[in-house]
Design a protein that fits this description.
The complex is a heterodimer of chains A (298) and B (160).
Chain A: E1 12-14, H1 19-26, E2 31-34, H2 40-45, E3 53-56, E4 66-69, E5 72-76, H3 81-86, H4 88-93, H5 95-102, H6 107-112, H7 115-121, H8 128-134, E6 138-144, E7 150-156, E8 161-163, E9 166-167, E10 174-181, E11 187-194, E12 204-213, E13 216-225, E14 232-233, H9 235-241, H10 248-256, H11 272-294
Parallel strand pairs in A: 1-3, 2-3
Antiparallel strand pairs in A: 4-5, 5-10, 6-7, 6-10, 8-9, 11-12, 12-13, 13-14
Chain B: E1 3-9, E2 12-18, H1 24-31, E3 50-53, E4 56-59, E5 72-74, H2 87-94, H3 104-117, H4 123-129, H5 140-159
Parallel strand pairs in B: 1-5
Antiparallel strand pairs in B: 1-2, 3-4, 3-5
Helix pairs in contact in B: 2-5
Classes of the chains: A alpha+beta (298), B alpha+beta (160).
């Protein structure tokens, strides 16, 4: 029986003081990372997760740093959503990322939860994957190599999700950080979501990133959440936009193509039919804002 | 497996043995007798269990007790100083911002985290700060007014 008041499941815990120690502790059957706990603790309470050992990573020093270097923003694995949302570099260079984070839960959730956790939880309707996808984010995956050295590899976020609530992470691996290339001049991004009330999980969300050249859209990346088993890109719309002169008519027509790229289902939050119809509106609004932002407007 | 930890709650150290699966909310209520922090939904939606961890509002029903070691925990019982209510507590009384009272401790702690960081918040900022705290008596108007009033009290006190 599940209760939301107490946890009946017994498990061990490890409190590593370094990434090395964490990776060592994770390299065992049934071991799982505990960060903010806002998803995992609920999952344990409701029997959706049954870990044998939790590896608590928020005590590891310097794993939460947010830095700009070598043309990229790097967000450490344990940076909390609230810290990222208010970070100066994020606010000035990635306003759409700050906006996507701001809609998640209440203040308390954002004070606890991490961006890496939001990605690793791999909910098809999570709010950060679409914007991270269009910003070309990469996930840094860490594991212990020979001689207790840490192997770090980088994987484009698009290849990270393998299904609803599933990622390609293997036992013994952990996300060390997320990197996002700094956007060039004449680019803009936007995020849109629809939910019943503000604290709800999204019925549907979408993010857009464009680079422009004069009055043309040079490059377009569009992603949507809650419309497929994983967050998805929308290549049909992207192709319809790239190289074209921006106009209301163009984005209207392109956004109508969204149904080609998504496969929503009926669930408690919405219906497939509604999601298909509303998706084009969200894409259109996001495109309009991204275009304004690419021209230095809000 | 038990872990020996020390929890610092409202400025006082409590040495404890906890199991890894013990939830902070239950340790505060059942083991330390601090009943001000409430159990509401248990899944992070209502904010009734809000406490401050190093000054930031968090949900104690989603926090495993062992992870709070080494942090300053503030519950509603810790706001009163030498028999005098915190300006927020007083303002909640004065503005009639308490009906059934169940959401009040969490609501006040979310407001406390806000005012400590931003002593003069706008109405919009107040609403944002308490977005994660549900009041089912529908008393939000008076709650927002109380938080405004507390912010003024604190400002005036600084002037004197």
């Amino acid at each position: 029986m599940s209760s939301t008041r107490v946890i009946s499941l017994d498990f061990e815990c490890a409190i590593p003081r370094s990434l090395n120690e964490a990776l060592e502790a994770l390299d065992r059957e049934g071991a799982q990372v505990l960060a903010g706990g806002t998803d995992l603790v609920n999952n344990i309470k409701t029997n959706a997760a049954r870990p044998r050992r939790l590896v608590y990573v928020l005590g590891i020093p310097d794993l939460d740093t947010i830095t700009v270097a070598a043309g990229s923003l790097r967000i450490g694995a344990t940076a909390r959503l609230g810290d990222i949302e208010h970070n100066r570099e994020v606010l000035s260079r990635f306003p759409a990322l700050a906006e996507a984070i701001n809609v998640i839960g209440g203040t308390q959730i954002r004070n606890m939860a991490t961006l890496a956790g939001n990605i690793c939880n791999a909910s098809p309707g999570a709010d950060t994957p679409p914007i991270l996808l269009v910003l070309d984010a990469e996930v840094e995956i860490c594991q212990l190599g020979g001689g207790s050295e840490i192997d770090r590899s980088r994987l484009p976020l698009g290849g990270f999700f393998s299904g609803p609530k599933k990622t390609v992470l293997k036992q013994g691996q952990m996300v060390g950080g997320i990197t996002v290339p700094l956007p060039p001049k004449h680019s803009g991004a936007a995020f849109r979501r629809l939910a019943r009330v503000s604290l709800d999980i999204a019925k549907i969300n979408c993010a857009v990133y464009i680079e422009t050249e004069g009055d043309r859209i040079r490059l377009a990346r569009i992603a949507l959440g809650s419309v497929a088993p994983t967050p998805v890109r929308a290549p049909t719309i992207e192709n319809a936009l790239e190289g074209q002169k921006y106009s209301e008519r163009l984005i209207h027509q392109a956004a109508e193509l969204v149904a080609e790229d998504i496969a929503p289902i009926d669930d408690v939050r919405s219906t497939a039919e509604y999601r298909k119809q509303i998706a084009s509106l969200l894409v259109r609004e996001a495109l309009q804002q991204a275009w304004r932002r690419s021209r230095g407007e809000a | 497996m038990n872990i020996g930890i020390t929890l610092n709650v409202n400025g006082k150290d409590y040495p404890l043995e906890v199991k890894p699966n013990e939830i902070l909310l239950n340790v505060l209520r059942d083991r330390l007798g601090l009943m001000g922090t409430k159990y509401g939904c248990g899944i992070g939606e209502c904010g009734a269990c809000t406490v401050l961890l190093d000054g930031k509002a968090v949900l104690s029903c989603q926090t495993l007790a062992f992870t709070a070691e080494g942090k300053r925990i503030t519950t509603i019982e810790g706001l009163e100083q030498d028999g005098e209510l915190d300006p927020l507590q007083q303002a909640f009384i004065d503005e009639g911002a308490v009906q059934c009272g169940y959401c009040t401790p969490g609501m006040i702690l979310s407001a406390k985290a806000l005012l400590d960081e931003k002593p003069d918040p706008s109405t919009e900022e107040i609403k944002q700060a308490i977005r994660g705290n549900l009041c089912r008596c529908t008393g939000y108007t008076n709650i927002v007014r109380a938080i405004k009033k507390a912010s003024e009290t604190i400002k005036n006190r600084g002037r004197n």
